């Protein structure tokens, strides 16, 4: 008798033997127990996770001589024929090679006949997403209203390619990839049954290479037995799979952590000389860094680590070489490099560039930390300049606090902050205006807010006239209010005798002395250029901008004056 590969030899024969798909198998078992088996199922998932195996077990459970039962005997003619794949009432169809409408028409003709011996005629259509559109359309009516005692099981690795009309007529079960621990446990179980001498490290290499597919893992185990015999050596298994030795991954990580760029390039050269596939190495190193990040974040004992137990302490040691932020940055760079390497004409150059980015990554400061430093330095400089500015503004005055009368007055304006006109231009972003007269107190935003509040109390119309104010100043017992040309309507309203008298009265109450008010219209652009620095000049004087340009060695390219919006 010819040799039977391990993947077939240890293929599950009952629901309990299916690994990693407990939710699916329990649901199907309950459907059999309660006699609620549907006429159509879709089994989707990656390769080698148990879709076709489960379909066969379901067919055996329904057609077993002792059934229907959730535990088929495996000895009756129906069970043995289904397991061997030659049952007359269980048809397995490969849709990849039988994808046309003629094949589906033949299937529809076959469905019309009752089972020859068993209870159900079961049609297992593998890779069903390969069917043509016409074939799917021909299958629709049969799936919706199948003949009695017939069952369709559609297996696919790409469920999204199935038409919605097909999916709506079937119950859909998604099979998941197996995790590392499940694969290692099943490989160990099979290895013991075969009388093999193995280590967790060797089985772990096979489990990682399988990437969640149990069939792939068993096939690799078969290959490892052919290469190593009855004793599986981890180093030999790695060599067989083309996997990079663990000492090479550790050496690369040490070189990166030490910032040794020359050593990194030497290791890449050694990998190329020894014939390792660079894309495969990058994938392994990415997984290695990911495990380091998990060990650093969740601890070496975390179940999230996909490594043998003897490697956990080694990972904990390497995790101390870098911070969580560094490891996160390493992983991001590696993932980007791995994506670029797939389509690179010169993989080695891309790999060298990506690994050198890791070497220099620890020298980079995050944008958040730089902005925090800029804020701190800018705040310190502003604090140092505060006494001089306070001397200009007069005692007890601030630019942020409003008096109670202003807070209870009109709603806050969305216009730009009003500047107080003085004899010399000032930085409107930071320096308060200087007083032009020693007798009255210097004008301020608080005074203007108070005037607005008083004016709103007497006339909301007059109060709204102060909203579009461009500039104002108080000098020699007179207050001057300036407006742009576009706000001529406010000037016309305020210059009437009664309204101007009301404004003078309000100003006199605020300043505590008789006042004369002058409301004039100005050319805004000419006035701004004459009395106030332009936006670029003000930006260059700003302490934060100055610190930012020095830190990043940058130049001011463009300035937008938001106060003019």
Describe this structure in words.
The chain is 53% helix and 8% strand. By secondary structure, the chain is an alpha/beta fold. The protein has three domains: 6-174, Rossmann fold; 244-364, Zinc Finger, Delta Prime, domain 3 (Up-down Bundle); 409-565, no CATH class. Helix 6 links the parallel strand 3 (121-126) and strand 4 (150-156). 31% of the residues are buried.
Topology:
Layout: H1 6-9, H2 22-33, E1 40-44, H3 51-63, H4 77-84, E2 90-94, H5 101-111, E3 121-126, H6 133-144, E4 150-156, H7 164-167, E5 171-174, H8 180-193, H9 200-210, H10 214-228, H11 234-241, H12 246-258, H13 261-273, H14 278-298, H15 312-319, H16 324-341, H17 347-361, H18 367-393, H19 404-407, E6 419-420, H20 445-458, H21 460-465, E7 471-475, E8 478-483, H22 488-494, H23 497-511, E9 516-521, H24 524-531, H25 535-541, H26 543-552
Parallel strand pairs: 1-4, 1-5, 2-3, 3-4, 6-7, 8-9
Antiparallel strand pairs: 7-8
Helix pairs in contact: 3-4, 5-6, 8-9, 8-10, 9-10, 9-11, 10-11, 12-13, 12-17, 13-17, 14-15, 14-16, 16-17, 18-26, 20-23
């Amino acid at each position: 008798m010819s040799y039977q590969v391990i993947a077939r030899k240890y293929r599950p024969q009952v629901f309990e033997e299916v690994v990693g798909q407990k939710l699916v198998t329990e649901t199907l078992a309950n459907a059999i127990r309660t006699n609620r088996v549907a006429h159509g199922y879709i089994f989707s998932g990656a390769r080698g996770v148990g879709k076709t195996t489960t379909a066969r077990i379901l067919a055996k459970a329904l057609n077993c001589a002792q059934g229907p039962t959730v535990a088929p005997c495996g000895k009756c003619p129906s069970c043995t024929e289904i397991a061997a794949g030659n049952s007359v009432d269980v048809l397995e169809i490969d849709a990849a090679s039988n994808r046309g409408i003629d094949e589906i028409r033949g299937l529809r003709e076959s469905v019309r006949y009752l089972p020859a011996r068993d209870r159900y005629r079961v049609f297992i259509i593998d890779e069903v997403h390969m069917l043509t559109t016409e074939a799917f359309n021909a299958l629709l009516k049969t799936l919706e209203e199948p003949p009695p005692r017939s069952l369709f099981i559609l297996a696919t690795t790409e469920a999204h390619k199935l038409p919605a009309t097909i999916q709506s007529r079937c119950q859909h079960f998604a099979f998941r990839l197996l995790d590392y621990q499940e694969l290692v446990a099943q490989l160990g179980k099979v290895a013991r049954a075969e009388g093999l001498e193995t280590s967790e490290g060797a089985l772990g290499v096979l489990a990682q290479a399988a990437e969640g597919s149990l069939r792939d893992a068993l096939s690799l185990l078969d290959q490892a037995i052919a290469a190593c015999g009855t004793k599986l050596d981890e180093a030999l298994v790695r060599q067989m799979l083309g996997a990079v030795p663990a000492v090479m991954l550790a050496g690369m990580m040490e070189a990166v952590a030490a910032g040794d760029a020359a050593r990194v390039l030497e290791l890449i050269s050694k990998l190329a000389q020894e014939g390792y596939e660079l894309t495969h190495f990058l994938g392994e190193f990415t997984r290695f860094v990911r495990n380091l990040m998990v060990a650093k974040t969740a601890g070496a004992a975390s179940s999230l680590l996909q490594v043998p137990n003897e490697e956990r302490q080694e990972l904990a040691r390497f995790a101390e070489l870098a911070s969580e932020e560094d490891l996160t940055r390493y992983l991001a760079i590696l993932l980007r490099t791995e994506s670029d390497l797939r389509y690179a004409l010169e993989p080695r150059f891309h790999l060298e560039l990506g690994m050198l980015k890791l070497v220099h990554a620890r020298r980079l400061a995050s944008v958040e930390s730089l902005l925090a430093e800029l804020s701190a330095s800018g705040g310190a400089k502003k604090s140092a300049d505060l006494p001089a500015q306070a001397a200009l503004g007069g005692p007890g005055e601030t630019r942020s606090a409003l008096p109670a009368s202003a807070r209870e007055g009109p709603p806050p304006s969305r216009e730009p902050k009003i500047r107080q006109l003085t004899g010399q231009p000032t930085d409107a972003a930071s320096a308060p205006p200087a007083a032009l007269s020693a007798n009255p107190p210097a004008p301020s935003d608080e005074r203007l807010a108070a005037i607005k509040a008083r004016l709103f109390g007497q006339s909301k119309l007059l109060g709204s006239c102060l909203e579009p104010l461009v500039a104002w100043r108080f000098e020699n017992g007179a207050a001057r209010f300036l407006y742009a040309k576009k706000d001529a309507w406010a000037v016309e309203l305020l210059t009437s005798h009664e309204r101007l008298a009301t404004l003078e009265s309000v100003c006199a109450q605020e300043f505590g002395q008789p006042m004369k008010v002058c409301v004039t219209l100005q050319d805004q652009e000419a006035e701004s250029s004459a009395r106030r620095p332009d936006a670029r000049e003000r930006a260059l004087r700003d302490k934060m901008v100055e610190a930012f340009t020095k830190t990043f060695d940058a130049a001011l390219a463009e300035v937008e004056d938001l106060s003019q919006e």
